[in-house]
Amino acid sequence: MKRAKINYPARITLANLPTPLVKLERLSATLGGVAVWVKRDEMTGVEVSGNKLRKLEFCIAEAQRQGCDTLITCGGLQSNHCRATAIMGARLGMKVQLILRGEEPEVASGNLLMDRLAGAQISYLPAEGWASAHPQYAAQLQAEAEVAGSKAYFIPTGASDEVGLWGYIAASEELAADFTAAGLRPDALVCATGSGGTQAGLIAGNALFDLAEQVVAFNVSDNAAYFEERAQHDISAWQQRYADILAGTPAADLKVSELAVNTQEAYLGPGYGIGYPEVFETIKTVAACEGLFLDPVYTGKAFYGMLNEIRKGADGCFAGAHNIVFVHTGGLFGVFPQQDQFTFDD
Predict the structure, then answer these.
(1) Domain containing residue 131
(2) 201 and 109, same structural domain?
(3) Which residues contact 197 (CB under 8 A, 6 or more apart)?
(4) What are the pLDDT digits (tens) for 238-297?
């Protein structure tokens, strides 16, 4: 397997790495010759979930390099990224301010409860107008921090920008080692995509380390056109910002417009954060069969989409595949706010 030479910027150790790569033996036996493997990135740390630590290793290192003592970030009420940032801020002695999309609920549960327990300062902005309002509010918080004698670093939704992209460049190098050890050449790498950073990092990483035939993402928000534009933007910005670091390596020569961005958009359902019966059934099935827990916001939708496309055979996006690796990005706490959607035969 190709091992590209690549240099990295400053990085702080937060995640428990490497995470395991495991084959789902019992589930795979039901799929007609397709083996499903899982990269267990829900095991990076931060109380059972998930992949955001990979990105935060680079984002928080950049914040510290700039002399910041405060982290500002944003996301939905049940944002895994916001929860991870809140906990890491507490561990590192940094103040964390979260800007959450939606109205404050009467009872904090799931990730929001963890945010509050970790001592994050939380502001709520209406969902309507969120796209333009939250960057302005973040800038206001940064200005207020400066007046108070602090310095705040803003991390965008999901830590998905050219800094956070490093998280899944590094993860791709880790996957290359996993695949070499397992004697594995996957036909596809699969992930959920919401803010786009994991998908973009895997696309760039696949081009650098020749991991799999294709990277396939299942969107949990927006649409395929959005993620194609987002991936190209983030990878281009990464090349430009880190031109000195990447000089002389294959990363500098990546032709961004030629990178395939494959987003399967048939499994979003009613919208972001809203599960539906097939997703809840998939979560139950995988938990009972393999002891692997998914969530209804991200991984449950992507895993359901992956299984459905596998079962389509020649008509699905994995036609002819023998080995598929699903990148489990975490999100366990997202189960609890929607626990009333599960039904059980007693």
Answers:
(1) 52-159
(2) no
(3) 55, 158, 159, 160, 161, 164, 165, 167, 168, 234
(4) 999 999 999 999 999 999 999 999 999 999 999 998 999 999 999 999 999 999 999 999
Q: Which among 107, 126, 159 is the end of a domain?
A: 159
Q: Residues of 212-246 as b/e, b for ≥16 C-beta within 10 angstroms? A: bbbbbbbbbbbebeebbebbbebbebbbeebeebb
Q: How many domains does the chain have?
A: 2
**Surface-to-core class of residue 259, CB atoms within 10 Å of its CB (0-12 exposed, 13-18 middle, 19+ buried):** middle
Handedness of CA 13, 43, 219, 114 (dihedral sign): negative
Q: What is the CATH number of the domain that holds 254?
A: 3.40.50.1100
Are 42 and 173 members of one domain?
Answer: yes
Task: Verify whether residue 160 is a known catalytic residue.
Answer: no
Residue matched to tokens 């970030």:
73
- Whether 7 maps to a domain, the answer reads no
Read off the pTM. 0.92
**The one catalytic residue among 49, 79, 160, 172:** 79
State how far the Cα of 158 lies from the Cα of 298, in Å rounded to an integer: 12
